[in-house]
Amino acid sequence: MAQEVRGVIAPGKDEPVRIETVLVPDPGPGEAVVRVQACGVCHTDLHYKQGGINDDFPFLLGHEAAGEVEAVGDGVTDVEPGDFVILNWRAVCGTCRACLRGRPWYCFDTHNAKQKMTLTDGTELSPALGIGAFAEKTLVAAGQCTKVDPAVAPQVAGLLGCGVMAGIGAAINTGNVGRGDTVAVIGCGGVGDAAIAGSHLAGAARIIAVDIDDRKLETARTMGATHTVNSRETDPVEAIRELTGGFGADVVIEAVGRPETYKQAFYARDLAGTVVLVGVPTPEMKLELPLLDVFGRGGALKSSWYGDCLPSRDFPMLIDLHLQGRLDLGAFVTETIQLDEVEKAFERMHHGDVLRSVVVL
Ligand code: APR
Ligand code: ZN
Ligand code: ZN
């Protein structure tokens, strides 16, 4: 029988979010119901609310979450009731051309729960990124649940479900940052800071943080940045070159998602270096570069989807490193809030006041 829970709904374009009763069906084949314990507030939730993702209102927001599996449907073997899990929004299919080639992190056919959660009047909800975790419970595909060590605090674990994983993965998976590398990160919000923490973890020798906001640069230092550049005052390309023996960084991670910062990343890397675009551009943005520079500078220009992560491989490993004190995921949690404070958290996020507000349930 469907259960009634409280959830944060975005009813229509730019309307304030509100708490509504949500009906969560029992899990069908391949599905799981998860009792949500924590869910971070991400820019993507705000984009949904603003109508920037699509028009499938009403949305059940929230997608950076951790919780306990309450029930599973037929055929689910990877997780069972009682498991502590982090939710991911790319449950891999195992059968598409990417999965068959052994590159499941590129899976082209990821999936979500088949059944719909609804309002009490039967209106179907669109869960943000197929998760919808600003709710006491949510229904997901079982493959969206990754079991991790339950010793970790839920408000910390949930962060790996989205932005923090995207940033760490941009550095260690996509950028392949390794011991002794020089790295520059442009844009030091949650994603950029995670790229800094990931580079630090991977043994980068020099990590240059670039932002237009001094407060962000201060935090970046605590995440592992060895140098900071305020690109409002200083040309970041010149500064990065200066800090890398005149050459440029081995890996430059663009965590803003704009043509001008991408160009900075392109020119701030060493010959044969790597640019990783993890910031998400908007549809109207265009990039113009001399093709000869693209050729002549060699190396790799990559984009990073969700940090090219494989949840089953990366989530448990990063949680273990956190529990061992080698990766301070707790530093990303600025504040914990209640379910009815999401609207306020959007405002604080918009003003750049927080790295992450996390709803705890
Ligand atoms: N140059 C340098 N830094 C900039 C610039 C710029 N021109 N414009 C903005 N920034 C900085 C902001 O000051 C902020 O610190 O980029 C950072 C962006 O951080 P957040 O807004 O907190 O965003 P975040 O959650 O980190 O996501 C960054 O990655 O996943 C994508 O959609 C996400 O495109 C977004 C990007
Ligand atoms: Zn696949
Ligand atoms: Zn997100």
TrEMBL record:
Q: Where is the Enoyl reductase (ER) domain?
A: 12-361
Q: Which UniProt keywords apply?
A: Metal-binding, Oxidoreductase, Zinc
Q: Which cofactor does it need?
A: Zn(2+)
- Annotated family: Belongs to the zinc-containing alcohol dehydrogenase family.
Under the heading PANTHER family, the entry gives: NAD-DEPENDENT ALCOHOL DEHYDROGENASE, S-NITROSOMYCOTHIOL REDUCTASE MSCR
What is the name attached to this protein's record?
Answer: Oxidoreductase
**UniProt source species:** Streptomyces lomondensis
